[in-house]
Structure formats: C-alpha cells, structure tokens
Design goal:
Elements: E1 25-28, E2 30-31, E3 51-52, H1 55-74, H2 84-107, H3 129-137, H4 144-156, E4 161-165, H5 174-187, E5 193-198, H6 200-205, H7 209-218, E6 220-228, H8 232-237, H9 244-256, E7 260-265, H10 275-289, E8 293-296, H11 306-312, H12 321-334, E9 339-342, E10 354-356, H13 360-371, H14 375-394, H15 399-405, E11 409-410, E12 413-414, H16 421-432
Parallel strand pairs: 1-4, 4-5, 5-6, 6-7, 7-8, 8-9
Antiparallel strand pairs: 2-3, 9-10, 11-12
Helix pairs in contact: 1-4, 1-5, 2-4, 5-7, 9-10, 10-12, 12-13, 14-16
C-alpha cells in the first residue's frame, strides 16, 4: 500500500471501555466524563477534564488509525499467531521514529500532531504507589506503541467491533454520532458493531425517543449503562445523580428505541450498612428493565477517591467478601426476568454467570459452595482466586506480591499452613488493589 512511515502518528484511543470491547477499535468522541462525581470512581479524578471533540478531530483520528492499519498489512502483521505480532511492535516503532527523524532532517518539520497535553496528576497522587499503578494502565495520552498495539489487537480480535467513547456518548446529537460511525465504516469496512457508554439520566433527560431511534438507524448497536445500584439511598450516597426509577426509565426507553441494553451493577456498593437493601432494590430494578446483559463488577475502594475519604471518616464500612457474595446470591435469586448475567470483571471473587431463569440453580450452586466453606478456607479460596485473576489480567505476578508470599514457598509449591489469617487478608488486599475492574 506504500504507507509513508514518517506520517504515522498516535491517536486518541479509549483506555476505559467495557470488557467486551477490549478487542474493539476505539475512538474518542468526548474526553473523560461530563458527570465525574461518582464517589467510588477513580477514572477521571486526577486532573483529566471533560471536553467534547469536534467531528473534524475524530475524522483525523480515524485517518491516523487507518494509516496504522495499512502499515500493519504492509508489514505482514495481519494473520500472525501467538505473541509474534506483539513482539514486533517495538521494532516497528523504532522504524517509524527513524523515518520521522529522516523526514525532520530533510524538511525541518515533523508531521502535524493533534494530541492533547497529558493530564496533570493530583499533587498527592505522585507518592501513592497504588495510584501510580492505576495510572500506568489508564493512558490519557496514548503513545505510538499504544496506538499500534490497539489497532493490531482489533485486527487479531476479528476486526468487526468499534467502541465510541468516552463515558457518556448519549450527550452527543445523533447526527454527530452518525457521521463518526459513517467515517469509521468508510475507513474500516469490516466493522459490524458499534457500542457506547451512556448514563441512564442522559437517556431520560437529554435524548428523545426519536433521537435514540436515530442512533439505532445510524448503526449504533448497544449502550453500556453503569447502573451500579437500584437503591436510591446507595445512589445518593455515591452521588450518581440518578434514581432507581430513572435507571428503569432510561433503559426501557433505550430498548424501545431498538438499542441493545447492557448494564453494570456493583455488589458491595452499599457497604455493610446498606448491603441487603442494595441487593434487594437492585434486583427489583433489574427485573423491571430486563436488560440483555447484567455485568457484575464488585466494589473496590480505590485510593484518593471520595469514597476512600468516607471510609477514613468512618461514614462507609466495606462489606466483607462473604457479604458481597451473599448480595450476588440475592441478585441471582430475585431477578425475575429473562437476561444474561456475566462475571467479566477481575474485581469479582466468584465466576457466576449464565442465563436467567434457566441457569439460576447452577449459579446458586457455585455461590453456595463458597458460602459453605469455613472462615480459613474462604481466605485461602480468595487468595487463590485473586492470584489467578491477577495472572490472567497481567500475565505474571509483581515482585511485591511475590515478596509477601515468599515465606510460604516450598519446592513443591506454596504452603500456607504457617500463614496467619491477618497476613492472608493483607496479601488479598494488596492483590485486589492492583486488579483493574
């Protein structure tokens, strides 16, 4: 295709996207979150501000991604198996940098860049290793290697899906979204599915039924809604800016417009005090909505979030892992509609998923097997489950986790018989703090 390597540039991908969109091509229509008040959420709390992007900026990013895609074809990346493609990315970046250096020597200028400046960190975030870990995975400004890897992952994943971010694309007029999807399809003809994040409040207040239907006609397939809870007390405590009934109204309106509805709920979000009410009210709201998918994402209290401040002040006491599992049991038992439950978040202790009502008994059996364990075995189960989640998410174990486990390493594996309950709980907390939901 004769790609000019000096013209290859990074573009703005969506670091934060649904788990089902991990292999999707992504483009940012907005930057960050227009609400950004949820007390549990760490994503945009460290200097990143909300902004809408001009459609010309989005079109320019689509062209940048298309040039990367063309280059990957030229370089023989497409169709590679295993890790061979990823291993070649650093050398490809060096090749591009060399071409740009050569171009600079010839013309005195590099290709035009249209990337935002890096978002500043919170002043006290620098000294917190937990925040440094989180921010290393949330890339406000992707570099060249990020962009190349992103397009390659999309091709390796089938090359058919596209996510348009960031946090609430329903604030954008249908004509804008339609133009973005049309431009993406023109550049990437294999695209078959487009999805977005949305707020139920936006579906209720900002978009008419006619506008939501226009999204569907333009090719939008699914909206991912972060419900988190159906309990008004919990929603108010977390400053979600929406009620349980507005969740219901927004989702039903979206479904009626012809869009698939995928919702996220957060076991544990009510803490110890509101645990039971959170579970019962959430189940009732979900039964009214009957979404296509319910995705479980158990609460983790992230450092330097408003929720962590509530914990320090004693105004929020976390629910135990067992209590969170019992909340999930309530959801599985009480959601009275046809839907699919998925446990596709590393924050979840148990892998509980299936189709309701058909798989209800099987899901309850998984939950009850855990609940039947004694306290020590629950700790050991949690440690093993968290280690497996960490290894699955990152492909290995970090040295600080290894150091905590080193006293129990033997020639035959790991012997936890000498580990105290308190130490096991500390290691579990360390691992949980590093898992990305």
């Amino acid at each position: 295709m004769g790609v000019e390597y000096a013209a290859i540039e990074p573009y703005e991908i969506c670091s934060i996207r649904p788990p089902t969109e991990n292999a999707s091509l992504t483009f940012r229509l907005t930057r960050n979150c227009p609400w950004n008040r949820c007390r549990f959420c760490p994503v945009y709390k460290f200097g990143a501000s909300f902004s809408r992007r001009e459609i010309a900026e989005v079109r320019a990013d689509i062209r940048r991604a298309q040039r990367i895609d063309d280059m990957l074809f030229d370089e023989g990346f497409i169709g590679l198996r295993g890790a061979s493609g990823w291993d070649r990315v650093p050398a490809l970046v060096r090749k591009i940098r060399q071409a740009q250096s050569d171009a600079l020597g010839m013309t005195g200028m590099l290709p035009e860049r249209a990337m935002p400046s890096a978002a500043p960190s919170a002043p006290d975030a620098v000294d917190d290793p937990r925040i440094e870990w989180f921010m290393s995975w949330f890339r406000e400004v992707p570099d060249l290697a990020d962009s190349i890897s992103h397009v390659y992952a999309w091709r390796a994943g089938g090359g058919e899906t596209c996510f348009l971010g960031d946090a609430d694309s329903l604030i954008l007029p249908p004509a804008y979204l339609a133009e973005a999807m049309e431009a993406a399809r023109a550049a990437f003809p294999t695209l078959r599915r487009f999805t977005v994040y949305g707020r139920t409040k936006s579906a209720v207040k900002k978009r008419s039924m006619k506008e939501l239907a226009a999204y569907a006609r333009a090719g939008l397939h699914r909206v991912h809604f972060g419900l988190e809870s159906g309990c008004d007390e919990v929603l108010a405590l977390m400053d979600k800016g929406v009620t349980g009934e507005e969740h219901v109204a927004g989702c039903l309106k979206t479904k009626e417009a012809g869009l698939s509805c995928s919702v996220y709920v957060m076991p544990g979000l009510g803490g110890a005090a509101l645990s039971e009410k959170h579970a019962h009210d959430t189940a009732a709201v979900l039964a009214k909505i009957a979404p296509d998918f319910i995705r479980l994402r158990s609460l983790e209290v992230f450092p330097q979030t408003p929720l962590e401040a509530l914990v320090r002040e004693g105004r929020f006491v976390e629910a135990s892992e067992e209590r969170v599992v019992r909340e999930i049991r309530t959801l599985v038992e009480e959601i009275d509609c046809a839907t699919t439950i998925l446990s596709d978040s590393a924050s979840n202790l148990l892998s509980v998923g299936g189709r309701l009502p058909d798989d209800r008994a099987a899901m309850l059996e998984v939950i009850d097997s855990y609940l039947a364990l004694d306290a020590r075995d629950k700790l050991l189960f949690s440690l093993q489950a968290r280690l497996e989640s960490f290894h699955g998410q990152y492909g290995g174990i970090t040295t600080d986790i290894v150091d905590e486990l080193r006293p129990y390493l033997t020639d035959d594996g790991v012997d936890y018989s000498r580990a105290s309950d308190d130490h096991l709980a500390r290691v579990i907390r360390l691992i949980r703090g590093k898992l990305m939901p």
